[in-house]
Amino acid sequence: MARLRVRIDFDGARQLGPGKIRLLELIAEHGSISAASRLMGMSYRRAWSLAVNLNEIFAEPLIIARTGGSGGGSAELTAKGQEVVRCYRAIEADAATAASCDLRTLQQSLAIRAPNQAD
Questions:
Q1: pLDDT of amino acid 118
Q2: Distance in angstroms (rounded) separating the CA atoms of residues 79 and 6
Q3: Radius of gyration of the chain (CA)
Q4: What is the pTM of this model?
Q5: What does the pLDDT look like over 23-52, one tens digit per residue?
Q6: To bridge 17 with a disulfide, which of 7, 44, 57, 80 should be the other Cys (CB 3.0-4.6 Å)?
Q7: How far apart are CA 39 and CA 5, in angstroms?
Q8: Closest CA to 64 of 45, 81, 50, 43
Q9: Position 76 in a domain
Q10: Can you give the pLDDT at residue 70?
């Protein structure tokens, strides 16, 4: 089934899309950038870079990270971070609803593909 993916381009250098939103959701759920990066199959360095980028995009930080000692660090979303996730998911749902008829038409117009054959 066809699905719609939403990426918001604020300008040339600032974007918000499904990957960054999923990172925020996993940080909120697990309280850790490290755990979120593992669950997404990305390096901690990449996740940290995205977290820094997200905090730079908006006027208020979305993530608060605390470095840890023997027990490790933690991270959480700010109220603004929670709001950004909520707004993005609402935009995504609204777009999917608005496009559902056209997506269905496009899906029905696809060529029929033969199933993959094993050698």
A1: 58
A2: 22
A3: 18
A4: 0.86
A5: 999 999 999 999 999 999 999 999 999 999
A6: 7
A7: 20
A8: 81
A9: yes
A10: 65
pLDDT, averaged across the chain: 92
Look up residue 38 and give its two tokens: 């593992």
Q: Rounded to an integer, what distance in angstroms lies between the CA atom of residue 61 and that of residue 78?
A: 7
Instruction: Tell me whether residue 64 is in a domain.
Output: yes
Do 17 and 6 touch, CB atoms closer than 8 A?
yes
CATH number at residue 103: 1.10.10.10
* Structural contact between residues 44 and 67, judged by C-beta atoms closer than 8 angstroms: no
Alpha helix positions (H), the chain: 18-30, 33-40, 44-57, 79-108
Residue 98 lies in a domain: yes
Helix (H, G, I), strand (E, B) or coil at 15: strand
Question: Per the structure, how many domains does the chain have?
Answer: 1
Instruction: Report yes or no on 1 lying in a domain.
Output: no
Highest mean pLDDT among 1-15, 34-48, 62-76: 34-48
Place of tokens 């993916």: 5
